[in-house]
Amino acid sequence: MPPNPNTVLLIAVLASFSTPFMLSSINVALPVMAPALGLDAMTMGWVSLSFLLSSAALLVPMGRAADVFGRKRVLTLGFALFTAASLFCGLAAAGWQLLAARVLQGMGSAMIFGTSTAILTAVFPPERRGKALGWVSASVYTGLSLGPPLGGFLAQSVSWRAIFLANVPLGLGVLWLIRARLAGAEWKGGENETFDLPGAALYAAALAALMYGLSAITAPPGILSAAAGAAALLLFLRRETRIANPILNAGLFLRNRVFAFSNLAAFLNYGASFAPGFLLSLYLQYKEGMSPRQAGLLLAFQPVFMVIFSPWAGRLSDRKDPGVIASAGMALTAAGIACFTVTGAGLPLWRIAAGLCVLGFGLALFAAPNTNAVMGSVEKRHYSVAAASLGTMRLTGQMFSMAVVMLLFSVFIGRVQLGPGAAEGLVSSMNAAIAVFTVLAAAGVLASLKRRR
């Protein structure tokens, strides 16, 4: 008997909730975590970047592994690793221990992201797929919504460690659901194909070196790392065009216009929209003197709008052209980000709230329709790799977003602990970053429209 699609949807919803909840919670809790673990401004950025780096480097290889060895198997292993790593994060006694556990969390997330969406796409028919993906997007944004206020409450009233430990019972619950409700079921896309382990290792090393280099591009080691990563990525792409069972099918990008430009739009969207929340959290606490709880409540405007409008946007993409809907979302994203520029008169709270609402509505219009466009443009045997590719664009976009911020921090602030004395450097960094992110979002509108021509 095939599994109930609604059970798969529930698992995908829970899987999609945990990581965004943790990421948005940590942004608010960083000022509390920093003195406890001795983190400076640059290391604070690595709390998020270490997770994103390991996750992005392994997403495509894990998506391919899921197609070859079984999507449920990889999903189960991913949740087990993610849950254990969350426990290790909550028990960390030093900065390096937290960063090491975050790397393990990222590895587990890489095994979860592509497989849950691929399984969902496999069990729902095309006419109901957009609606299901809309609920998944809503769960992502529910995690983002609850993250700032609940993370601020936990950091201020309990401990920042509780943010990580909250993932443990959630992960155990999902593992029980998989074991109890998906027993005997499995989904594969490459039954008689092999897994290219050397190619997977080359891809992971190339992407990790490239993104690390971008985050430290002002120093000679960063330049060398970025150059080595770019060269290794070119070697990987050359290898993939010459083997029978590649990790990443280059033809999906070269011959599938919708797939290629939808992925590019996703990279630009997340590259533009991820770091503003990180910057606003620091601005509100260090410049405006807000508590973590107060800052979290204000930042919740954005994901609340996402939660409200994502299911509707997903249903709309089942009836209308997803590319048009996603393009409108990108335009609103650019407008929302531009609201966060600090002028001579400062950045009034009403403008922050308005910008967060516009940004939230724009992201809701973009996410589910863009995912629907990607998954609907490939054959069933490529579902896991397609979902992993889209996830990689999301994570590399988020990594690039944080790399821009860390580059600007190194220019305007340097390796000092943030505080009232560094407020001027924080504002300068923030204004430069907002300008970059607004341009990225505007470019995303063009990429999103390009897939339709």
Brief account:
This protein is mainly α and 453 residues long. 81% of the residues lie in helices and 0% in strands.
Overview of this protein structure:
With 453 residues, the chain is mainly α. The chain has two domains: 5-181 and 247-450, MFS general substrate transporter like domains (Growth Hormone, Chain: A, Up-down Bundle); 196-246. Helices cover 81% and strands 0% of the residues. It contains 18 helices and no strands. It has helices at residues 5-37, 41-69, 71-90, 95-123, 126-158, 161-165, 167-181, 197-215, 220-240, 250-254, 257-273, 275-287, 292-299, 301-319, 322-338, 349-375, 383-412, 423-450. α12 (275-287) runs antiparallel to α18 (423-450). It is globular and about 60 Å long. The N and C termini lie far apart (43 Å).
- Please outline the major beta sheet: none
Order of helices and strands: HHHHHHHHHHHHHHHHHH
Oligomer kind = single chain
Number of domains: 2
Number of alpha- plus pi-helical segments: 18
Class per helix and strand makeup: mainly alpha
Uncertain regions spanning at least 5 consecutive residues: none
CATH topological fold name of the largest domain: Growth Hormone, Chain: A
Average pLDDT over all residues = 84
Determine and state the CATH class of the largest domain. Mainly Alpha
- Strand fraction: under 5%
Percent of residues in helices: over 70%
Shape: globular
Rg on CA atoms, Å: 20 Å
- Per DSSP E runs of 2 or more residues, the count of β-strands stands at 0
Instruction: Tell me the name of the CATH homologous superfamily of the largest domain.
Output: MFS general substrate transporter like domains
